[in-house]
Amino acid sequence: MGSMGKMVMRFLQKRSLATLPSQMIEKGQNRVVEASLTLIRERAKLKAELVQALGGSIATTCLLGVPLGHNSSFLQGPAFAPPRIREAIWCGSTNSATEKGKELKDSRVLSDAGDVPIQEMRDCGIEDERLMKTVSDSVKIVMEEPPLRPLVLGGDHSISYPVVKAVTDHLGGPVDILHLDAHPDIYDAFEGNKYSHASSFARIMEGGHARRLLQVGIRSITKEGREQGKRFGVEQYEMHSFSKDRDFLENLKLGEGVKGVYISIDVDCLDPAFAPGVSHLEPGGLSFRGVMNLVQNLQGDIVAADVVEFNPQRDTVDGMTAMVAAKLVRELTSKMSKLAH
Q1: pLDDT average, residue stretch 257-279
Q2: Annotated binding residue at 157?
Q3: What is the pLDDT of residues 305-320, one digit of tens each?
Q4: Which carries the bigger pLDDT value, residue 24 or residue 270?
Q5: Structural domain boundaries of the chain?
Q6: Is 209 annotated as a binding residue?
Q7: Is position 185 annotated in a ligand binding site?
Q8: Which CATH number applies to 27-339?
Q9: How far is 138 from 115, CA to CA, in rounded Å?
């Protein structure tokens, strides 16, 4: 269905809801939200019990999909990314071992709580304020089942705000954030939308959820982006000067004195030669190995992470970007999961 068709369907759905009593709509929405959270809760509990029964895990990476794309300023294809990433992880074209030798088929290394049913909630007329709260609640549910730690599959970058908020609320304090992206995503309210994927880090910083925010890979930034960066004390590392910053960035030590480290990877941090399946093609980005050097060499306790903005609708080269996104997830999993020796 084209964008016009989707707009018409959304209009008709809203008109249909408008003819119902508000109390009836509210009760229905409450049931859908509770059912959504129950689904995540039961899956996370089951997976955590399995890991605990196996024993020996200090931290187990748990996938959580958030298929949300409507806060994108250009294309909404990232909503279709989570199942494509999972398919690429397990497609069989490569083995299940990570570069550091961890085995993804080991349930103590990688688990999966499924997807937050975003579209089902939107079809019931649930607006962004509550939608974002439900995403936060879903992340908290995963974190309430030790030793699970959430690795969230986007979706557009608007999901990072409710995810980071959930992480810091649960842990009781701010984190240090390593944000890899072509864009700083720090507009106050892009095109009037405070939940825009281009505004997620403004919400994170004004909420006090990060002590330090390091943004790496930036090569499309406006005057407002730089001003907002200065306002919030963001450490912005642009690609035009990456060569002089490389040694520092490839030997980061983060998280001391706070609740840990959060990593957010927008797939468009990579040069389009490595990842053409994104909504915003920005030449001059990081190489895949460059991203791996940043992530694998980082010293710190990674408490949660996300991989966002993969757009399957633009992944025209035999699913190449799906494999890239999957590889990012695989290696983040290796970094986050900890087994007792």
Answers
A1: 98
A2: yes
A3: 999 999 999 998 789 9
A4: 270
A5: 27-339
A6: no
A7: yes
A8: 3.40.800.10
A9: 10
